[in-house]
Amino acid sequence: MPTDLELLTEMGFSENRSRRALATTKYKGAQVAMDWLFAHADDPDIDDPFEEAPGQKLSDEPAAEGDNKTETAEAKSVQCDECGKKLRTQNDIMMHASRTGHSGFSESTEEIKPLTEEEKKEQLAKIQERLKQKKAERIEQEKKELVQKEKLRRKQGKELVAVKEQHEMNEMKREAERKKREKLEEKKAKERVREQIARDKADRAAKFAKTAVPPPSIPAAASKPTEVQKKEYTQTKLQVRDITLICI
Fold first, then answer.
1. Is residue 127 classed exposed, middle or buried when 0-12, 13-18 and 19+ CB atoms within 10 A define those classes?
2. What percent of the chain lies above the pLDDT cut of 70?
């Protein structure tokens, strides 16, 4: 029965990459290792020399027994008692159990035939298709996240604009109220000035009335002029003086 390393190399992966993939995925099977290889094919250190840790891997084949022992029926695979699927390694059993929830397994003497070239290509195509699907799903998820982020950004922008407009409107209202109060105060001040001027005029008028001297009264008789009686004269007297000049 071919090991996971042999399956990977038969599918076209280099031994170095195959060993790295199996060790990185903790020897969970060839399929998991292939998923890792496709996902990390462009890593810059993918072809760096890789050394496995010492010790037997779960995917390794058990050592052959000596010829001097009695031949017994050897278990060449493990069969799922619930679905009948045959599995090669312990890792395959664990992966099958985790995916399906099946728990009953038994040993089988039936050997799992190695994959033919067509089966290898078909499996590789399925893996590549699944990777493409996962990549498409990831891209779609990223697009959705970008759309959600853009919606959130726009919503926050609208809320910010609304808050700013509300703030400006409140400022305008406060300014209008302030101007209204100023005009009212100015009107009241003018009214107080006019009232004060009116009071001052009234006070001056009252003081002037108290200190003013009344004009003297004119008798009624004096108000009419006395009539002068005219006299008629019939004679006129002339006086003549003789002035003698004395010459020396």
1. middle
2. 72
